[in-house]
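Minimal example, chain plus 2-phosphoglycolic acid.
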Amino acid sequence: MSLAGLFSQRWPGVALFDLDGTLVDSAPDLAAAIDAMLEQLGRRKAGADNVRQWVGNGASVLVRRALAGQADWEPASPKDDALFNDALAMFYHAYENLNGQHALLYDGVEECLTRLADYGCRMGIVTNKPEQFVAPLLEQMGIEHWFDISIGGDTLPVRKPDPQPLIHAMTELGGTRGTTVMVGDSVTDISAALAAGIPSVAVRYGYNYGAPVDTLGADAVVDSLAQLL
Ligand SMILES: O=C(O)COP(=O)(O)O
Ligand SMILES: [Mg+2]
């Protein structure tokens, strides 16, 4: 399907947006919180370049990856579980203070949201970020008013790449599979959209675990959300 097909024929429709790596470059704050946690545990900092590649499956997986020092982590032993629980609490505490401090909206985001709202499009956030951090970040970035629904990684029993969060948001916004688009930066977003049966757009500037997004199966791939218009 062409970009024009996705973004011209069907309005008013529903647009679902991933948050981290799609609307907001939040990796600097996530990295600062991960490094604060690692320091508190007496470990070496991970640094922003590593953390950027570990974002996308929610806070628990991010902390697991940081403790392992790599994207792949082994299921924990009971001893590791105690460490993990402490580490997760340290991360939450640090991120609560850092969330939004160094984060920036990507180029083209405000333009895109403004124009879609003009079209009568209803918009939602579907992120794996824990729910408690979503509204504060949207408010800091000044974009909260565009969104009629926001689903976090712990809002429902499952998160992306499960299709349920997308289907839930789409239904709540009155969308159907023929009138809804998912926009994201990672394989989790595109896989969730494919499983939900809705078209998707991948952005090239996000995280996606450091891998290219061109072969994920998105219906369109863009360098800026302004290209959608
Ligand atoms: O892993 C995260 O917290 C980031 O989530 P998102 O890319 O789904 O917004
Ligand atoms: Mg993302």
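The beta strands are 14-17, 24-25, 104-105, 122-126, 147-151, 180-184, 200-203, 220-222. The first strand starts at residue 14 and ends at 17.
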